[in-house]
Amino acid sequence: MRRIAVMGAGNGGCAAAADLTLRGYEVALWGRSPSTLEPLATRGGIDYEGVLGEGFAQIARITNDPARAIDGADAVLILAPAQAHEDIVSLTAPHLADDQILMAAPGQTLTLLPAALRRCGRAKPVVCVSSTLPYICRKLAADRVRISKVSARLRFSAFPGKRTDELAERMRPLLPSIYPVPTLLDTAFPYTNAIHHPPAFLCNIGRVESGVEYMHYYEGITPSVGALIDRLDEERVALAAAFGVRVDKLSEHFFHMGYTDENGRAGGTAYHVFHNSAPNRWIRAPSTVDHRFFNEDIPFGLVPFTELARIAGLSMPVSDAVVTIASAITGKHYRQNGLNLAKLGLEGCTTAEVQRLFENGF
User: Fold this and answer.
1) The pTM is what?
2) Taking a C-beta distance cutoff of 8 angstroms, is the pair 149, 279 a contact?
């Protein structure tokens, strides 16, 4: 595996393009927006800093043509916000070869990618996902990315789940921290952004609208905000158990990912986790309410959690409350437009039927 198409020129895409290039892969970087790509194309690559050192990564191909991006690629990596996944699949599906691997990171959209491929008449390309981005990263400028941390443990699964081990072996040279888990359910439930981004953002929304600059994790997550996150985390862990999936609580998960230290793990609460998280220490809060902390992490995180809870017969009152309040504030219909059961193709399913689908496929 030598040629990689990276779909998405935002934070994660630019981090991956730089990292993979430095490790000797031939990378094609695709982005939809000409204004995003132009600075990168003009320079022929991207400046990077952080844990990989500091320098310039010359990218083999930078394009807004999806066919050109994936031509000859061994793997096609979607590193873009979840709300863009379905559109990216529709753009790439006509050009995908049957032996190309399509991977989303993060891929918490459950059956959305394979279902979108089916709608495009493409059932053969193999879909796999990881539970989170492989990096903690931020673009500092149009042509510069800071990579604060490379994930030490990347939960990984394929759809159908019975092909996970095979795909893990093929993708591990690309992403060495891959940690195979049985099915996509095992990658969706560890989607902890869903349980810490929305409530912390919600509790600090006055700061955001007043234009106050602050560090989102270190200053925004106080003991009280952390307590709210802990309640959402308890609901997430209980939901996973209802589908036969064991997930670590937030403090354990972040420790294994390398995102908090022993003090954060030992403290056991969200407050301790983020106040002992060196990679997240200097990340500034968003400057607008119109941000992925709501627009991605609610419709593609909290909404499918609460929808799956309906199948399992569980109550998730705190998660439901965050969705309802955020919807009231923004005027956005997160439940109707997010990953509800209808979009996932799971309406009328039992818990056992959902488990069989993720293991065996459509």
Assistant:
1) 0.82
2) yes
Length of the chain: 362
Quote the CA–CA distance of 34 and 57 in Å, as a whole number.
Answer: 20
Phi, psi of 101 (to 5 degrees): -95, 130
For 282-330, write each residue's pLDDT tens digit: 999 999 999 999 999 999 999 999 999 999 999 999 999 999 999 999 9
CB 31 within 8 Å of CB 39 = no
Q: Which residue matches tokens 């952004």? A: 193
* Residue closest to 305 by CA, chosen among 174, 192, 155, 148: 192
For the chain, domains (ranges, CATH) are 3-188 (3.40.50.720), 193-353 (1.10.1040.10)
Token pair of 97 as six digits? 């070869």
- Return all residues near 87 (Cβ < 8 A) that are at least 6 apart: none
CA distance 86 to 188: 17
